[in-house]
Automatic annotation (TrEMBL):
SUPFAM superfamilies: Phosphoglucomutase, C-terminal domain, Phosphoglucomutase, first 3 domains
Positions of the Alpha-D-phosphohexomutase alpha/beta/alpha domain: 9-132, 153-250, 254-361
NCBIfam families cross-referenced by the UniProt entry: PhglucPhmanMutPgmG
Residues of the Alpha-D-phosphohexomutase C-terminal domain: 370-445
Matching InterPro entries: A-D-PHexomutase_a/b/a-I, A-D-PHexomutase_a/b/a-I/II/III, A-D-PHexomutase_a/b/a-II, A-D-PHexomutase_a/b/a-III, A-D-PHexomutase_C, A-D-PHexomutase_C_sf, A-D-PHexomutase_CS, Alpha-D-phosphohexomutase_SF
One Pfam match: PGM_PMM_I
PROSITE patterns: PGM_PMM
Organism whose genome encodes this protein: Sphingomonas brevis
Family the UniProt entry places it in: Belongs to the phosphohexose mutase family.
Protein name: Phosphomannomutase/phosphoglucomutase
């Protein structure tokens, strides 16, 4: 049997599409067969499978498991929970890999699959190869067995192990995502007073979209913090691998700012360690890591790429602007927003200051959010090459780790091609608004020179 996936669902870091349009249960089955063929070719025999709380996740999981077992793998089903719980299962159970059925932070009609195998993420060329296996019918055959294991309590036990934080009054927003039931168990194990929002799992996300990196989605959490005069608030995305946070004044603590706070105790324990952040992070972060005696490393955006770089450099901590925080220090190296929240409580405790004070001490800068420019898929990497060529001719100060990140007297600006969409992503940061305006004028000038008009750029 051969099977052709819609090409748009085979992404850089995962398989993801719109259910009923680009993604179906047939895709889940075919992916199971292709993944099983890859896994068995590497000697793997047993994998864990989890799912998030979306309305179509049970059907997707069922089809996936059928594909995995018919491909010869034994499957340990760990049930509904956040993606990090599946990663925890892969790290602690007697399995060779795992697949999480999840639409992550995407709207309710999306779903997809995040895959691990033999200690690595399956991403990039390997995901394209799964598509090739399906198209060629290059599948293994077998009759795997299915068992079920409840790891919720073991996961919560691990989250609070060696907890040494103080008692705070904290607000939490699970966004009706898969973290809800775990969060309710977690807060009962933590000292202090806790107020939770939307911990009932509802894959339609009736209250707000579950992506804490968009400030509008934090409105209910800010109100909760204000109404109860709380110390701070924490939010999770749909599968709890992204964290968002606000201080007692309702100010957002962005991903790179969280990493500054979290890095303190890690560098105290491991002086000189490498701390990784993606190219979208503030220069303040890289400067602060160096000031604290760490080795800051700027790397490519994308959780799979960051995890690989952590292994290569033996980094104990990494993070992205998108709220993915990866702890190898006292944890397993995967991105886990619930563990990051626990570590945030511990780090604030150790600092002897409030989260609000820590936020207030951070240098003031003005920065754009992520700006996205529509560009034809066939042009997106070519545009970056054209911009890089012009910058080289000008003798600009360019870091080309992932796209172009240009430092000037005003600050810095970034232009990179998205690995998952037909867009270019820009971001800029300066000491003041006038500097930011100059940086963005440069970005727009570069885009115009590559035939992307200001009208397109405004999207």
């Amino acid at each position: 049997m051969t099977y052709i996936f819609n090409r748009t669902i085979l992404r850089e870091y995962d398989v993801r599409g719109i259910v009923g349009q680009t993604l179906s249960a047939d895709d889940a089955y075919a992916l199971g067969r292709s993944y099983a063929a890859l896994a068995t070719s590497e000697g793997a025999t047993r994998v864990a499978v989890g799912r998030d709380g979306r309305t179509h996740s049970p059907e997707m999981e069922q089809a996936l498991v059928r594909g995995l077992t018919e491909g010869g793998l034994d499957v340990v089903r760990v049930g509904m929970g956040p993606s990090p719980m599946l990663y925890f299962a892969v790290s602690t159970l007697d399995v060779d890999g795992g697949v999480q059925v999840t639409g992550s932070h995407n709207p309710a009609d999306y779903n997809g699959f995040k895959m691990l195998l033999n200690g690595r993420s399956v991403f990039g060329a390997e995901i394209q190869d799964l598509g090739r296996r399906a198209a060629e019918g290059d599948w293994s055959e077998g009759r795997g067995e299915v068992t079920e294991t409840d790891i919720v309590d073991a996961y919560v036990d691990a989250l609070v192990k060696d907890f040494d934080g103080k008692a705070y009054r904290i607000g939490w927003d699970a966004g009706n995502g898969a973290a809800g039931p775990i969060l309710e168990k977690l807060v009962r194990r933590l000292p202090g007073e806790h107020f939770t929002l939307y911990t009932d799992v509802d894959g339609r996300f009736p209250n707000h979209h579950p992506d804490p990196t968009v400030e509008a989605n934090l409105a209910d959490l800010k109100k909760l913090v204000a109404d109860h005069d709380l110390d701070f608030g924490v939010a999770f995305d749909g599968d709890a691998d992204r964290i968002g946070a606000v201080d007692s004044k309702g100010r957002v603590i962005w991903g790179d700012q969280l990493l500054i706070i979290l890095a303190g105790p890690v560098l105290k324990d491991l002086p000189g360690a490498t701390i990784i952040a993606d190219v979208k992070a503030s220069q303040t972060l890289f400067d602060r890591i160096a000031d604290m005696g760490g080795k800051p490393l700027m790397w490519k955006t994308g959780h799979s790429l960051i995890k690989s770089k952590m292994k290569e450099t033996d980094a104990p901590l990494a993070g992205e602007m998108s709220g993915h925080i990866f702890f190898k220090h006292q944890w397993y190296g995967f991105d886990d927003a619930m563990y990051a929240a626990v570590r945030l409580i511990r780090a604030v405790s150790e600092s002897g200051k409030s989260l609000t004070e820590l936020k207030s001490e951070m240098p003031l800068s003005v920065a754009t959010p992520e700006l996205r420019f529509q560009v034809d898929e066939s042009r997106k990497f070519a545009v970056i090459d054209e911009v890089a060529g012009r910058l080289a001719a000008e003798g600009a100060d360019v870091n080309s780790t992932d796209g172009v990140r240009v430092s000037t007297a005003d600050g810095w600006w970034l232009l990179r091609a998205s690995n998952t969409q037909d867009v270019l992503v820009a971001r800029a940061e300066a000491k003041d608004q006038a500097g930011l305006d100059r940086l963005m004028a440069t970005v727009n000038d570069q885009l115009t020179k590559s035939g992307i008009t200001a009208v397109e750029a405004a999207h």
